[in-house]
Specification:
This protein is α/β, with parallel strands linked by helices. Helix content is about 40%, strand content about 25%. The chain is built from ten helices and twelve strands.
Length: about 290
Amino acid sequence: MPVFLALLRAANLHGAGARLGLDASTVSRRLSGLEKTLGARLFVRTREGLRPTATAERLRGHAEAMEERATALLGAIRTVDSRAGGVVRVATTEAFARILVTEGLLGLRKNHPDLVVELLSGNQPVDLARGDADIAVRLAALKQASLRARCVAKMGIGLFAAPGYLRARGLVRQPADLRGHDVILPTGELSRLPEARWLAERHGLRAVFRSNSMPALIAAAILGHGLVPLPLGWGDSEKTLERAMVLDAVPARKIWLVTHEATSERPAVRLVAEQIALLLRRVFAV
């Protein structure tokens, strides 16, 4: 049911494909195969995207329950020690910290009550070799002989806005549609992001708000002040925002999970690292 759930959550073939790491045509073929197997229509194509049928809505709860059981099974398989406990410090960005908490990182404590996860958020890299943290989640691999880095997911970037803003100002499907729109731009250290630079170079856009705080940028978009650039998985999880368009001009970025060889074999660190990888694969395309 991964394709079915991805389509329910993204409401279009491209968005579902980004979540699954597939192209839109493959998603479409798999949807057709699923509908043929079930003998029922699951989605209706509209100008706004894919609209689930009544049958799809009835199946939603069953599919989510299956996903939850599968996730629990994977978690059980990857649990390396039922006695995993102690403090595991995870250094990451403000954005990833929020995603990890909302997606269920702390659910590990259900089976590991002695485990304490300490999230250290910030945009500056930490020194794992010095012991500043046990795990780092970053957009750049930290290159050092004693560090172990692996790419756990890739994320594309899109523009998101409040539905009311898009109704009032017009839909955005391609770069040419951006002229005349208001944008909410990252600043400070976030101004170096490719999407921030790309938007700043576009003519005909009006920057109405800037901040180096991602929560502040999102809050402004929710209130209808303009378009905000966000990673696709994060933006799609914001129920009060609507995806306007994917920024194809901005390459997808790799998400790296980094540990130090001295602590990577510690049961609690391994447990938390595997759960983080699982959650990021669920949110972003692998």
